Structures are given as C-alpha cells and as structure tokens.
Amino acid sequence: MSTTDTDDGTVLLDERTGRYWQLNSTGGHVLRQLLGGYEPTGIAAELADRYGIGLEQAERDVTAVIERLRASELVIS
C-alpha cells in the first residue's frame, strides 16, 4: 500500500489490485496512527479531545474507519 496526503485527506493505492481509495483528513489521521502502532482506544481519545466530541462517538468513528479498511483488505488484524 502506498499513501499520499492531499489537501482533502489521504489517497491510498492498493498495489496488489491497482485500486485507489480516498480518506478524509480524519480517516487519514486514523490510518497514520494505526500504521504508527497506536491502539484504537488511544486514537479515539485523541480525536475526542481534538474535536470536543464524546469518547463513545470517537470510538465508534475510529471503529468505522478500521472496519472499512479491513473490508477493503487494506489493513489486517
């Protein structure tokens, strides 16, 4: 997988299939944090603090990004 940050978020290239994916800025941040070894709960806590949202909402949002990445086989685990 190759990634490139853009003004609108992050573009991913699945080198196995040649398919491109686009994540908004928050989704791109979640991906970078995951690739950096951060745990989903820590990522959610950071987003909750950054955006002034509830921790439960942030956890749901992070989980949704992860599920989409898994469903697309862009991340495993």
From TrEMBL:
Gene3D superfamilies assigned: Coenzyme PQQ synthesis protein D (PqqD)
Family annotation (InterPro entries): PQQD (IPR008792), PqqD_sf (IPR041881)
Pfam families, sorted: PqqD
Superkingdom in the source lineage: Bacteria
Protein name: Lasso peptide biosynthesis PqqD family chaperone
